[in-house]
Design goal:
Shape: elongated
Mean pLDDT: 80
Number of strands: 26
Number of domains: 4
Low-confidence stretches: 111-115, 652-657
Helix content: 40-55%
Number of helices: 26
Length: 748
């Protein structure tokens, strides 16, 4: 059996760390898939539980040089990380400030003499040594520890670059201080200041980056905060406040104005309105009365009411949303997988380039060739930033999926986001997607005379009794019509469904068949005289259903289902942004043509079974089309599964979270346009992040290597290289955070 687990991985700092952890996990037999996310600090693993164990994963991660924590303690761990960084930054900044001041004082001997007496150069050097040592080896210990582990595993990363760069400057200066005569004149320069400030600048960058990264998961934190800690339960006619963990399915809960609901449930007594904005993206309060469904985490705005808990804990819609967003944030889209492959060879290439740079300048250098070669080699090491490469995609995915959740758009994985941004065609189901999904029985006609059978309750009674066993919207319309006439529906037996065709059942010894003309033809029931009647209803946009009793056609029913008011504008807007719009429905051709003409849709496929919808999607894909299919998430499951992106409409607690790659909580087709706009914005952000991460290195590594020095005198100081390295990853995170302010089309 294939299962999935998530570990919190501690100590990752760059894309090289990600590659190393993933490699260690994938080497374990039984692992199907491993995705490590730098931004979330997590490893999502899919494996065969009879071949691999969580203990084995833990050992592999630790053997690779990283810690393993409890995912539930991620928030506390993040706070500890930030606290530790803050402490080290304060120490490093204070010591480096003094170190820098001493270096500047040396440049003005009169000032130095006035302050400390005219001290010799070695004495100043010992001052610098005393200040630089705690900066490099105490505050910078995290780089040394991780760097040594990386080198031991022959997989260097950012920490290796910092350790070697700062370490080279420090130890070179130590040798200069104690044995200055072994160096040629002009090369006996001290780099204690550079070593200290390099570590300090990278620590400051890491600290700012950690603060910014904490903001990327704000949406999940906000969702989790929606869940109250306690619930007010009625037991034995007495109200009692209990912790959420004590709540049971079936409990009766009381909620007062301004309070959050503790569980999903059904309203028992009272009326009110609930604010479901954080769940569905719908900002208009929703009316609630007896029988209405309510969602955990939503706010009761008006009157008090009682409700019965139907889902608690991990089974609530709120928890499902959180799980779905976390799942999406841990997923890697194709663009990230490519970036990771490049990053895995980037650091070794940089280290080799540093050696080559040193060698070339030693060969062609002048009197100070050694010092020049040393500075350029260190600068090359420090300018490279695999951290920015590793953060470019996951930070954008984190913020983007969080922004989507705030607008009622749930995205299952990062791959779906990338695919959605690249689609060229949106195909819609009709019933319940473009239409209200609340059909009504408008006609029940004699198949021969065409006269109304509204007064013949016996026929409607038998048809409704058979349809009462089905959850299809058309079935519900027929049953509701019977209930309005106060008909008592007899019990049905031997009920069966022919997907996309209809149903049949045995009622009071009579064989009842209800469905399409195709079902009647398949069962060899004579319908010739009724075809004209059916065509007349279909031309008016009505869904046509035929009913037979004991293999004899007894009624032709017309079902109306009006188009949602927001649909025409939404389809127009989708076409405006350059996408094609199509319709696939199981309805007859005449009905489908009527609806399509109302909406201006030219690409129509009608009379399709569920599997036929999927086949049509595949046919369009073979033509080179990138398809997003929009359906209700249940009957349209095959089409949702084969489309490049399946978009399922969900409402309330009935959300079909497993049906599509994207779920629109509010069940509003305007969410399709929102989802596309979000996906395009996220992809643009990722592309810009990657452009910056790679472009930054492509431009500045040659400068650091001194390639432009002979022509323009350009040379990058190691301190500036360290600053640029830190700022590059910070820039990527801040650029991703802009998505939090993204204004999506249509304010629902």
């Amino acid at each position: 059996m294939t299962v999935q687990t998530v570990f919190r991985v501690e100590g990752m700092t760059c894309a090289g760390c990600v590659a190393r952890v993933e490699s260690a996990i994938r080497e374990i037999p039984g692992v199907e898939e491993a995705a490590v996310n730098l931004a979330t600090g997590s490893a999502s693993i899919k494996y065969h539980e009879d071949q691999a164990t969580e203990a084995g994963f833990r050992e592999a991660i630790e053997a690779a040089g990283y810690g393993v924590g409890d995912p539930d303690d991620a928030k506390a761990s993040k706070l500890n990380e930030i606290s530790g960084l803050r402490r080290d930054v304060i120490i490093a900044v204070l010591l480096s400030a003094v170190l820098l001041a001493i270096s500047k004082v040396q440049m003005f001997p009169p000032v130095a003499a006035a302050m400390f007496g005219l001290l010799s150069k070695p004495v100043w050097g010992f001052f610098e040594l005393a200040l630089a040592t705690p900066v490099v080896f105490y505050t910078g210990w995290r780089f040394i520890r991780s760097g040594l582990i990386e080198l031991r595993h022959l997989n260097p990363g950012m920490n290796s670059l910092v350790m070697i760069g700062a370490g080279a400057a420090y130890f070179y200066s130590v040798v200069v201080l104690f044995w200055p005569r072994i160096f040629p004149q002009g090369t006996d320069q001290s780099y204690f200041v550079a070593a200290g400030i390099i570590v300090t600048l990278i620590l400051v960058g890491r600290y700012l980056e950690a603060l910014a990264r904490g903001q990327t998961s704000r949406a999940i934190s906000a969702l989790m905060d929606l869940e109250p800690q306690t619930a007010r339960v009625v037991k034995n006619s007495t109200e009692a406040e209990i912790f959420l963990e004590e709540l049971c399915i079936g409990d009766t809960l009381v909620v007062r104005p301004g309070e959050r609901l503790a569980a999903d449930g059904i309203v028992l007594t009272g009326t009110s309105q609930t604010d479901e904005a954080m769940i569905t993206g719908e900002w208009v309060p929703v009316d609630k009365s007896a029988g209405a469904k309510v969602i955990a985490g939503t706010i009761n705005k008006a009157g008090a009411f009682t409700y019965r808990a139907t889902s608690i804990g991990e089974d609530t819609v709120l928890r499902q949303i959180v799980q779905l967003v976390e799942q999406a944030q841990n997923d890697k889209p194709p663009i990230q997988r490519l970036s990771d492959k490049i990053a895995s060879i980037f650091v070794p290439a940089v280290m080799l380039l540093s050696v080559i740079t040193f060698a070339i300048w030693m060969i062609i250098g002048a009197e100070s060739g050694f010092a020049f070669a040393f500075v350029t080699a260190v600068s090359v090491l420090l300018i490279a930033c695999p951290c920015a490469m590793g953060l470019a995609t996951p930070t954008a995915i984190m913020v983007g999926t969080g922004r989507g959740a705030e607008n009622g758009i749930l995205i299952r994985n990062g791959s779906a986001l990338e695919s959605l941004a690249q689609i060229d065609t949106v195909i819609f189901d009709k019933t319940g997607t473009l239409t209200q999904g609340m059909p009504k029985l408008s006609d029940i006609l004699d198949p021969v005379s065409g006269e109304s059978l509204n007064k013949d309750d016996n026929v409607l009674e038998l048809i409704a009794a058979a349809e009462a066993q089905s959850e299809h919207p058309v079935s519900r319309a027929i049953v509701e019509a019977a209930i309005k006439k106060d008909l008592v529906l007899p019990a049905a037996s031997e009920f069966s469904v022919s997907p996309g065709l209809g149903i049949e059942a045995l009622i009071e010894g009579k064989h009842i068949q209800v469905g399409s003309a195709q079902l009647m033809a398949q069962e060899k029931i004579e319908i010739g005289l009724a075809l004209g009647l059916a065509a007349s209803l279909a031309k008016k946009g009505k869904i046509v259903v035929m009913a037979a009793i004991d293999s004899k056609l007894v009624a032709v029913l017309g079902i109306t289902d009006s188009v949602k008011p927001e649909v025409p504008q939404t389809l127009s807007e989708i076409e405006t942004i350059g996408l094609q719009v199509g319709l696939i429905t199981g309805d007859g051709k005449l009905t489908a043509d009527f609806v399509a003409s109302e909406l201006g849709i030219s690409q129509i496929t009608s009379e399709t079974l569920p599997d036929d919808k999927a086949s049509e999607i595949i046919r369009l894909q073979k033509e080179g089309r990138k398809i997003a299919f929009v359906g209700d998430g249940i009957n349209d499951a095959p089409a949702l599964a084969v489309a490049d992106v399946g978009i399922a409409l969900g409402t309330g607690t009935d959300i079909a979270v497993q049906a599509g790659d994207v779920v629109l909580m509010a069940g509003d087709v305007r969410g399709v346009l929102k989802a596309i706009a979000l996906a395009r914005s996220v992809l643009r952000t990722i592309q810009f992040n990657l452009f910056w991460a790679y472009g930054y290195n492509i431009v500045l590594i040659p400068v650091a290597a001194g390639m432009f020095f002979p022509l323009f005198g350009w040379l990058l100081n190691p301190i500036l290289a360290a600053a640029a390295m830190s700022l590059s990853s910070l820039f990527v995170v801040i650029n991703s955070l802009r998505l939090r302010r993204l204004q999506l089309p249509f304010s629902l």
